[in-house]
Design goal:
Largest sheet: 5 strands, mixed
Radius of gyration: 25 Å
Shape: globular
């Protein structure tokens, strides 16, 4: 569940996450009925994994003589989702905006996409209680990550997703409608309602996780009850394009934006005119500055929040700093007209740069109380239990502040996170929210991995939304045996919060990695302090599911097809042909997927780092394996590169196009197994080729025994290198293709192959990142789609009029056409043509994988923010 295990780099295109590789427990390691059965999903194993990677969780505290340069430390675990889009250099602002304009100008193929995942997704589906599932944990219906929430007193709720845009409910939650589909960015950083009821949207998610996109600025909606966002509603100019926005705050007739490039302000009365840069601690690193292209530039001006005293709007406190630590981290205020670091008089709230990281503020409606959460870079680096420095309270944003909670106290107040190595605030760099009940200055909700509540200003706390119900005495894998005190909780990993009213009653709304939940502001609790009245608002009308992959096979039990896919922090979904509710048959983060076209219940699901589980019954299980280990029907079959961490976070898997029993997996090595879905052990994989130390596979494909493998190493923009190896599944004939360094095939991330089913020597290559117009790096080259007719020896650029946008996946259609998945939708080149057309009109959402269904006539698109879509191939003519 997104536990940090590896250090990652936050680059200029998208930010990072450190998401955990949870080790799979052997089938024989079943536990007792009321223990936590999910060995691969227990907090103890999460903690063990985090502790094992303890020197790579965060950069080391900088030495006095390194001039604050943290590039070496950060780059060790360079973020993989980001680097695919940035390497070999830094991408200039405006790249995505230009790509979106070019894409929308393409001619259309006709036809329209159909969303097939726009129905409830039950993470606790009782059909799927196998050993690798998290079902019964208590999260209920889920959708994709929600970064921000806003709500008013008329029953309107607004949910801003990480990659699927902004959604509106008119009924206090549920019955959602998208309202930002016309924008070039569907990544939400902040949502806020101002005093006149206007809705402000800051694009660009700022949670520094692996799959967050930069935004296109700030937009305002004058009539949020009825209107939709458009490009005409952008505030100011392009000053905030290609930034992330952590918070929007109001005061003194201004809106203030805490961004990845400092703190900016704009008049709320007129929306024209440029944004004003209020403060950047290191302006030389901003675009146009002398160090704008430095490797550290993305970290040098990060602002997290702004506290403004409504009684004295001139009194402003800025919380500034990179969550893994930098010399500029701290709190700043104006002194004699100049922004000055606060070094004393702040009380318990630290001012030392080592102890100020990610910070969130909140204040009461009457301005009498202020609250703050502080994540500490020092704690993140040295404390295996938590990165939380504390939660604080003050009568003024200027302090003095008093600590009112720490991680040990929160753990003792009904938390599910009580194991050493994984306690409250362990992901405080990623999970934070704060809000105050408008009617009670001492009534506060705080979000970290869990949701906490205090009604007395922090003297006492309750974990009203525990991480999950596993480990509590009330829990049982059998719903019939679970006691009534195990109520629904929220999904883990909290990001957004708001309080609003519906039919005269106040509710708190929380957004997290599983979507949106609500409960009455003054709700009920059980004896352990857990809320008894959470309601999931993820009713299927809001689909922001973040897929990495998709798999399709015939549903032999019900006819039609079964569709499955791996998701960010929402495991593996499965949608069978007669389902009205999707289920989750694997837990954690879902990666790549293999599904037998002839039988959709034969599934191989990658967790992360090439940890592969396989099932041959859709992982249908009643949980009886907890007392009889032989009844488990999922098996850990990870190749050895998983144990040595020599694989990508989302590592590539493929079946041979001519033999579905032959599988290819890519880490440092190219692995082959020939037992298909009957594989039962990782020992059944054979290494047929060693790419070499420091290299990892980025894409694999095979047809008739011929295997293509793309790799990178180093994979970040410091010395980035890429290549292609070709050989046979039996281990013979392996060799590296000589790719010229002149950019003929760009020196960028090679993300996918598509092999002509009629000729294994005819292959297409999809290339990620941006061309040299936007990327400053050696060999960045131009183009995104290349073709070889001689087995990869030589390549030809066939990009033609294809927009300059990262390409992720490609599929050869039965008629000989070529479909390509990009970060902004799907394009198609008809057979015999050279020009590209746009397929349908998806919003500006990343499509990470394309696959054909068993009928060969249906194309499935796994989007990272808007679920799974299908279109008939005949429409792409």
């Amino acid at each position: 569940m997104s536990a940090p295990t590896r250090k990652r780099r936050w680059l200029t295109i998208c930010a990072i996450t450190a998401s955990a590789a949870l080790v799979t427990t052997p089938v024989g390691a079943a536990s007792g009925k009321n223990g936590t059965p999910f060995g691969s999903r227990t907090i103890a194993r999460l903690a063990a994994e985090r502790e094992r990677s303890a020197g790579t969780v965060a950069p080391k505290v900088k030495a006095e003589d390194d001039d604050g340069n943290e590039a070496d430390e950060i780059a060790e675990g360079a973020d993989q989702y980001a680097e695919a889009r940035t390497s070999p250099g830094v991408v200039a602002p405006g790249a995505y905006g230009a790509a979106w304009t070019s894409l929308t100008d393409l001619p259309s193929t006709g036809g329209s996409w159909r969303n097939i995942t726009d129905l409830p997704y039950n993470s606790d589906d009782p059909r799927y209680r196998d050993i690798d599932s998290n079902s019964s944990g208590g999260s209920g219906n889920v959708t994709g990550r929600m970064a921000a929430i806003a709500a008013d007193d008329d029953g309107y709720v607004y949910a801003g997703s990480a990659g699927g845009g902004v959604w509106r409910s008119r009924r206090g939650g549920g019955h959602w409608k998208p309202i930002s589909d016309k924008l070039s960015s569907q990544s939400t950083g902040a949502l806020a309602l101002d005093g006149s009821g206007r809705l402000w949207l800051g694009t660009g998610e700022a949670t520094t996780n692996a799959d967050a996109y930069l935004g296109s600025g700030v937009y305002v909606l004058s009539d949020p009850h009825h209107g939709t966002f458009s490009s005409r509603s952008r505030v100011g100019g392009d000053e905030l394009e290609s930034t992330t926005i952590h918070e929007l705050r109001f005061g003194g007739g201004k809106v203030w934006a805490a961004t990845s490039e400092g703190v900016w302000s704009h008049s709320t009365k007129t929306l024209k005119g440029a944004w004003k840069l209020e403060f950047a601690p290191n302006p030389d690193y901003l675009p146009g500055g002398s160090k704008a292209h430095d490797d550290d530039a993305a970290y040098k001006n990060i602002a997290n929040d702004i506290a403004i005293d409504p009684k004295d709007p001139g009194k402003v406190i800025l919380a500034v700093g990179w969550r893994s630590g930098d010399d500029y981290n701290g709190f700043y205020t104006r002194v004699d007209g100049a922004w000055t670091r606060i070094s004393s008089g702040f009380g318990d709230l630290p001012t030392d740069p080592d102890d100020v990281g990610n910070v969130t503020f909140a204040r009461s409606a009457d301005g009498s109380r202020y609250y703050a959460i502080d994540e500490s870079p020092e704690q993140l680096n040295t404390n295996p239990d938590s990165g939380l420095e504390g939660i604080y309270s003050a009568a003024s944003p200027s302090g003095p502040w008093t600590k009112i909670a720490d991680y040990k106290g929160l753990a003792a107040d009904g938390s599910a996170l009580t194991s050493s190595g994984y306690m409250p605030g362990v992901q405080a760099w990623y999970n934070q929210f704060l809000t105050v009940d408008p009617s009670d200055p001492k009534h506060v909700y705080a979000g970290l991995e869990e949701v906490y509540e205090t009604k007395d200003g922090g003297a006492t706390w309750s974990t009203v939304g525990p991480y999950w119900n596993f480990g509590f005495s009330c829990w049982s894998i059998d719903p019939a045996e679970q006691t009534g005190t195990c109520n629904q909780t929220t999904h883990s990993d909290q990001h957004g919060v708001a309080i609003g009213r519906y039919h005269g009653k106040s509710f708190v709304y929380v957004g997290n990695d599983g979507g949106v939940y609500k409960r009455p502001v003054n709700g009920s609790q059980d004896a352990s302090g857990h809320a008894t009245d959470w309601t999931s608002l993820n009713d299927g009308t809001i689909d922001t599911l973040q897929y990495y992959s998709v798999g399709i096979g015939k549903d032999l039990s019900h006819g039609g097809v079964s569709v499955t896919g791996g998701l960010q922090d929402n495991g593996q979904s499965i949608l069978r042909s007669n389902d009205t509710v999707m289920g989750s048959n694997f837990g954690g983060d879902g990666g790549d997927t293999l599904t037998d076209p002839a039988n959709g219940c034969d599934i191989a699901e990658e967790y992360v780092y090439l940890s592969v589980q396989v099932t041959q019954n859709c992982a249908v299980n009643d949980g009886s394996w907890t007392t009889d280990a032989t009844k488990a029907t999922s098996y850990n079959v990870a190749p050895a590169d998983n144990a040595t961490s020599e694989a990508r976070f989302i590592a590539p898997l493929a079946t041979d196009a001519k033999d579905s029993n032959t599988w290819i997996a890519g880490g440092r090595h190219i692995w082959v197994q020939t037992h298909g879905y009957a594989i039962r052990s990782g020992a059944e994989w054979k290494s047929v080729h060693d790419l070499g130390a420091g290299r990892t596979a980025t894409a694999v494909a095979a047809s008739g025994g011929k295997v293509y493998a793309a790799w990178c190493g180093p994979c970040n923009n410091q010395g980035f290198a890429r290549g292609i190896s070709v050989g046979n599944a039996d281990g013979t004939g392996w060799h590296d293709i000589t790719l010229p360094v002149d950019g003929t095939v760009p020196n960028r991330y090679l993300s996918g192959f598509a092999v002509d089913p009629k000729n294994a020597d005819h292959v297409y290559l999809a290339v990620n990142g941006f061309s040299r117009h936007w990327t400053e790096g050696p060999g960045a080259g131009v183009g995104h789609v290349f073709e070889s007719t001689d087995g990869g020896t030589t390549w030809k650029d066939i990009s033609a009029n294809l927009p300059d946008v990262p390409a992720n996946s490609a599929v050869v259609t039965p008629n000989g056409g070529l479909a390509v998945a990009t970060d902004l939708g799907v394009v198609y080149r008809a057979p015999g043509r050279t020009r590209w057309e746009r397929v349908g009109s998806l919003p500006a959402v990343a499509v990470l994988q394309l696959k054909l269904g068993p009928d060969g006539s249906t194309l499935y698109a796994a989007t990272h923010g808007r679920g799974i879509y299908t279109v008939k191939v005949r429409d792409c003519h």
